[in-house]
From TrEMBL:
One Pfam family per UniProt: SurA_N_3
Record-annotated PpiC domain positions: 151-249
Gene Ontology MF terms: peptidyl-prolyl cis-trans isomerase activity
Listed InterPro entries: OMP_Chaperone_SurA (IPR050280), PPIase_dom_sf (IPR046357), PPIase_PpiC (IPR000297), Trigger_fact/SurA_dom_sf (IPR027304)
Gene3D superfamilies per record: 3.10.50.40, Porin chaperone SurA, peptide-binding domain
Biological source species: Croceibacterium salegens
Keywords: Isomerase, Rotamase, Signal
The protein, known as: Parvulin-like PPIase
Length: 401
């Protein structure tokens, strides 16, 4: 990939989307789906979808600026810093280097962030104020949920693809191809961000913890009820399109679960030089693990970590459930001030986690009135958002190379 390739792949109201822009965004998706083989045919479809996303993104940024709501560089940089720590467990500088190693760039990810922030502002002004949910609707849903106490609730993620009678078959076939890629190990959040038309796309399709009644769709309720954690199902045909569901976890309503504990952590990590031999990396990892064990407390972790050449990042308010399954039980068994065994790879380096605080879980009485109101509003905002974006596309001048 030539970073100096400024050839236009498309023009959106006169603004150029280059071949490099497209290549770098595709590289992000490929990296998120490491180990998954993508055929030439599938790659072509992926590039077409990413191009549509880049066009929508450009329209959103342009429209926000036209309405005097432009996202500033400072805002994007601040979000990027949070993203580096929370999503990649890296410093911003480490994330910069990581993205370049993937044949992508910090600018590509920052452009995606700018588009998401711009769309959020447009929705706050032009969509959300015109969505209404009545008190009767909220009360009806609340009563259904109260009657369901003691029953399971589910942590679901979704990918929604809309269709019309004319596009029904083509969209259904595309949904099947997405499911095939996911079953080969593709990243659900990555595919949701690029393909899903639901409002949850910006958070990787995550619906959070919900009771099935909150899906507001009998077909999806029935499908989700029979799923097991880790299971992927779809495409499920529903009114207006197709849905792909992934069940991340389940629990009983109102019952405390140890995995609902919230942790404060210090991540202590050591990077390896590029090209280091595996034997030398193992020796450094062993020495690092021994040195990390001697760190006396969370209060001194930053200075003591720096003294052994390590990077120390604070991660507060991390639910146990948000950690990889392999780490969950390990963290639940640690006492304050203890660290995990080292983990990592030649490419990512070696790291340990130090437990600095734990907030015990408590029984959950379920969503309150305001939360249910927000959920119903979000559902309607999602539907109106699709119409809003269609209007932006219709009024735009888009030229393809």
């Amino acid at each position: 990939m030539d970073p100096d390739n400024r050839r236009a792949s498309a023009k959106v109201n006169g603004e150029i989307i280059t071949g490099t822009d497209l290549d770098q965004r595709v590289a992000l998706i490929i990296a998120a789906n490491e180990g998954v083989e993508i055929s030439n045919e599938e790659m072509q479809r992926l590039r077409q979808q990413v191009m549509r996303n880049l066009i929508d993104e450009t329209l959103e940024i342009q429209e926000a600026a036209a309405q005097d709501m432009a996202v500033t560089k400072q805002e994007v940089d601040q979000y990027y810093q949070q993203y580096a720590v929370q999503q990649f467990h890296r410093t911003p500088e480490q994330l910069d280097e990581h993205l370049r190693s993937l044949n992508s760039s910090p600018a590509s990810l920052k452009r995606q962030i700018e588009g998401e922030l711009a769309l959020d502002r447009l929705l706050q002004r032009n969509v959300r104020p015109f969505v209404n949910v009545s008190a009767d609707e909220v009360n009806e849903l609340y009563q259904r949920l109260q009657a369901a106490k003691g029953t399971p609730e589910y942590k679901l993620a979704e990918i929604y693809l809309s269709s019309t009678p004319a596009t029904h078959q083509a969209v259904g076939e595309n949904a099947k191809r997405i499911v095939d890629q996911l079953r080969q190990g593709g990243s659900f959040p990555a595919y949701a961000r690029q393909f899903s038309e639901a409002s949850t796309a910006v958070v990787g399709g995550d619906l959070g913890w919900i009771r099935l009644e909150q899906l507001q769709n009998p077909t999806l309720e029935s499908v989700a009820r029979s799923m097991k954690p880790g299971q992927l199902v779809g495409p499920v045909e529903i009114p207006g399109g197709f849905s792909i569901l992934y069940l991340q976890d389940s629990r009983q309503v109102g019952m405390a679960d140890p995995r609902d504990a919230v942790l404060n952590l210090k991540q202590i990590s050591l990077e390896f030089p590029k090209g280091i031999a595996e034997e030398e990396a193992q020796a450094r990892a062993t020495a690092f693990a021994q040195a990390a064990q001697r760190i006396s407390s969370c209060a001194t972790a930053d200075t003591e970590g720096a003294a052994i050449g390590a990077q120390v990042v604070t991660n507060d308010n991390i639910p146990v459930r948000a950690l990889p399954e392999a780490l969950q039980q390990t963290m639940l068994q640690l006492s304050i001030g203890q660290i995990t065994p080292p983990f990592g790879s030649l490419e990512e380096g070696v790291r340990v986690l130090m437990l600095c605080g734990r907030e015990a879980p408590s029984g959950d009485s379920g969503p309150n009135y305001d939360q249910l109101m927000a959920q119903l509003e979000d559902d309607r905002v999602g539907k109106r958002t699709q119409r809003y974006l269609r209007d932006l596309r219709r009024d735009a001048v888009v030229e393809y190379n």
